[in-house]
Amino acid sequence: MDKLKRNAGDLADKAADAVADNADKVDGGIDKVAGTVDQKTGGKHRDKVAKATDTAKGLVDKAEARAAEEKAKRPPPPTPPTVDPDA
């Protein structure tokens, strides 16, 4: 059971990273879906669509912030050694 939880957590982390890495595309997709739903329903549910859109975009922002925090925690990559051309 612990392995299942760990794997689910790893999968969630990968999904959040993918969303954070492609936030502009995800936001564009959210807008496109919202527009399609609004059009197909004739605007009858515009308030609900707008609320869902805001919620989804908030989750994208949260994923971006989390990814930025994780990146800041990682140590910088090692600096490659420099070669003295005169040596």
Brief synopsis:
Helix content is about 75%, strand content about 0%. The chain has 3 helices and no strands. The chain has helices spanning about 1-20, 25-40, 45-75.
Which labels suit this protein?
mainly alpha, Antitoxin_Rv0909/MT0933, elongated, Antitoxin, 3 helices
Task: Kindly describe this structure.
The structure is a single chain. The protein has 87 residues and is mainly α. It contains 3 helices and no strands. The chain has helices at residues 2-21, 23-40, 46-73. The longest helix has 28 residues, at 46-73. The model has no long low-confidence stretch (mean pLDDT 88).
Order of helices and strands: HHH
What is the rounded distance between the termini?
A: 59 Å
Q: Roughly how much helix do the residues carry, as a percent range?
A: over 70%
Instruction: Count the DSSP helices.
Output: 3
Alpha-beta classification: mainly alpha
Point out poorly predicted stretches: none
Average pLDDT for all residues: 88
Give the overall shape, derived from the CA principal axes.
Answer: elongated
Rg measurement, Å: 21 Å
The total count of strands amounts to 0
Strand content: under 5%
Sheet with most strands: none
